[in-house]
Specification:
- The protein has a seven-stranded antiparallel β-sheet, with helices on both faces.
- A hairpin with a 2-residue loop joins strand 6 (173-177) and strand 7.
- The chain has three domains: 2-240, no CATH class; 386-542, no CATH class; 545-607, no CATH class.
- Helix 2 runs antiparallel to helix 7, helix 2 (24-48) packs across helix 8 (225-248) and helix 7 (198-223) crosses helix 8 (225-248).
- The chain has helices spanning 2-10, 24-48, 52-55, 79-82, 85-94, 183-191, 198-223, 225-248, 304-317, 327-332, 359-370, 436-442, 549-557, 563-568, 587-596, 599-607, and strands at 60-66, 71-74, 106-109, 121-129, 135-144, 173-177, 180-181, 253-263, 269-280, 283-287, 333-336, 390-395, 398-402, 445-452, 468-474, 478-483, 504-507, 515-516, 520-525, 530-534, 574-575, 584-585.
- With 608 residues, it is of the alpha+beta class.
- Helices cover 30% and strands 21% of the residues.
- The chain has 16 helices and 22 strands.
């Protein structure tokens, strides 16, 4: 049933029927209005929600899906959420009469086996009708919720072997009927969540959808239903055409890549993601055949909809950024995901951790493969963290959880011409890392340090940004959960650049019980315990020997790169000392060392 349903959900949808023709300027004005509506809906949610995951970190996204289930517009949010919304909404559309859709309705979905991502990503959506009662589009809001009512707080059960362990599943649940809140249903949803702030978060999602629906109704009234439908068709067709034009400029061929996950949560090592990207004229096919399909794996199952989304996140990053992100990409790119592999699981597999891994390895593999044809835009759209250190406790208000999403630096890779920069990878879009001070005001924790690690980024002609060492102290007895990966297989460098440094994690640092987390942990920590999480940095781009020696000197002065690495990795000889701040490049010494290290061959290769 699940595989058959996935085929139906992913099938190509027809354009909206319309009697109107439209010129490109009018179509683009309406497209811009749609983008504004999505931005306003996401901003509404960010300002009204109670959870720091949403109101501080902005882990949310808005999108508009048309009446045929096609993605018409997405806001600037968390990118992978942009490309999953239409799949969840399509299940509701397939059952429109069963669920008695009508004006003023608002629905909730989070089911991984009915077009969803993992359970914490709640999708709330509302249909938009014109004054004649015709369904024109659907406004969606998706956000990560801090709990799902499952066995373990947060919905992340390390040993889960089925989805039911992870929480409550909603294929399509009506929260609001014809503008009236269904209080019994609302109370049922709230009761199946541990967080005291959850009611406010769901109310904010409902309010954001209703606010955006009113805006869309105004646009339909202004332009007319037929013109709106014509504008949606035009935008999707334009994106498909632009995408095919980009692909047609790439050389034909089959480009392969394999990326490994260190282990599943039970310790099975080297879980494989394999991709073949085939270019034939203006057609790009991304095929995940060869990806691990061992059915006894635990914790590494990504939903079909999520896998499609993560493929697309990387594909769009490799193309002209002015191309509008909508259904046209899916029309132009064939995505093949074998049934039963970890990127397309059988029914009822757990999915919570799959949104980290193998999701990130899918994007990494696509990036490595297509770096052969679009090196100038080859930057992995991922976060290689297994899962943050989730710290959980109880107080007079009930359960609290610090999900470890406050300030840190990780996975910010270089791209051709630009060093890695910022605190988090571009894959996280508009996600803003919470302030340490905010976390300390909410939870009984103390952030001791958040320091970038020297030599913590991959060396390259353009350098990856260093990762950070996050040191945190718990002020009361707490439980800490972690799944550690990317130690054996850290983030890959691009086009000759070095890989990023490995991740590592230690609990009860400085005590007799200090221990390194090698695989997973769900440990009770005493008051005063210190945990230290070393985040991997970004990967390098291009060979390190081609980096400007002056830039290397500045990196050493900024303590991004050590004096030893300047010589060993970059072939740069420095005089003076960092202590005296009088470093200078020894140009003859650098030239001689680089000649010895083979820079001439690299320069010839780069020129070719």
């Amino acid at each position: 049933m699940s595989f058959e349903l996935n085929r139906k959900l992913a099938a190509r949808r027809d354009p909206l029927p319309t009697t109107a023709s439209i010129d490109p300027v009018t179509a683009d004005i309406i497209r811009g209005a749609f983008e504004t509506v999505c931005f306003e809906a996401a901003t509404f949610l960010g300002r009204a929600a109670s959870s720091p995951i949403i109101n501080s970190s902005n882990e949310r996204n808005a999108a508009i899906v048309d009446a045929n289930g096609r993605l018409a517009m997405g806001a600037v949010g968390t990118p992978q959420l942009t490309f999953v919304n239409q799949m969840e909404t399509r299940w509701g559309l397939m059952n429109l009469e069963r669920y008695d859709w009508g004006p003023g309705d608002v629905f909730l979905g989070n089911d991984p086996d009915h077009g969803g991502g993992h359970l914490p990503d709640y999708c709330v959506y509302g249909p938009v009708y014109d004054d004649k009662g015709e369904l024109i589009c659907i406004q969606t809001l998706q956000a990560h919720q801090g709990d799902t009512g499952g066995k373990d707080p947060g919905g992340f059960t390390l040993e889960a072997t089925d989805i039911f362990t992870e929480g409550v599943i909603y294929p399509c649940l009506k929260l609001v009927h014809r503008g009236e809140l269904r209080k019994d249903v609302f109370d049922f949803v709230i009761r199946n969540n541990r967080f005291a702030t959850f009611a406010g978060d769901i109310a904010a999602m409902i309010g954001g959808v209703q606010f955006a629906v009113k805006m869309l109704e105004g646009l339909i009234a202004k332009w007319g239903s037929e013109t709106i439908k014509a504008a949606i068709n035009h935008s999707i067709e334009h994106t498909e055409r632009r995408t095919r034009e980009e692909v047609s400029r790439w050389p034909d061929g089959a480009y392969e890549a394999t990326v490994l996950i260190d282990h599943d949560t039970m310790g099975t090592k080297d879980i494989k993601v394999h991709v073949t990207c085939t270019i034939a004229g203006d057609q790009l096919t991304v095929d995940l055949t060869g990806t691990d399909d061992r059915q006894d794996l635990v914790g590494v199952w990504n939903t079909f909809a999520n896998s499609r989304s993560y493929v697309m996140c990387q594909v769009v990053a490799l193309m002209d950024p002015t191309i509008v992100k909508n259904e046209g990409y899916f029309n132009a790119v064939d995505i093949v995901i074998p049934e039963g592999c970890i990127a397309h699981p059988p029914p009822d597999k757990p999915a919570a951790l799959g949104s980290f891994h193998p999701a990130c390895e899918i994007t990494e593999a696509v990036c490595i493969a297509l770096s052969n044809v679009a090196p100038e835009r080859a930057q992995p759209q991922l976060y290689k963290i297994g899962m943050p250190n989730a710290v959980i406790g109880f107080n007079e208000a009930g359960m609290w959880m610090d999900q470890g999403v406050d300030c840190r630096s990780m996975d910010t890779s270089a791209v051709q011409g630009i060093d890695g920069w910022g605190s988090c990878p571009s894959a996280l879009g508009s996600l803003i890392l919470s302030e340490a001070e905010d976390a300390e005001s909410r939870f009984p924790i103390l952030n001791i340090s958040r320091e970038m690690t020297t030599d913590g980024g991959g060396a390259g002609q353009w350098r990856g940004n260093p990762g950070s060492l996050n040191v945190k102290q718990v002020l009361g007895p707490t439980t800490a959960m972690a799944w550690m990966v990317s130690a054996d297989h850290p983030l890959s460098g691009m086009c000759g650049g070095d890989d990023a440094i490995a991740y590592s994690n230690h609990f009860e640092v400085g005590s007799a019980n200090e221990r390194k987390i090698e695989r997973t942990a769900s440990d009770l920590l005493p008051a005063g315990a210190v945990i230290a999480y070393q985040h991997g940095g970004g990967a390098g781009f291009g060979h390190a020997l081609l980096r400007d020696p002056q830039a290397v000197k500045e990196d050493v002065l900024d303590e991004y790169v050590s004096e030893g690495a300047a010589r060993a990795k970059y072939g740069v000889v420095l005089t003076g000392t960092l202590t005296n701040y009088d470093l200078a490049v020894d140009w003859p010494g650098t030239e001689a060392l680089r000649q010895q290290m083979g820079v001439d061959a690299l320069m010839r290769e780069a020129a070719e």
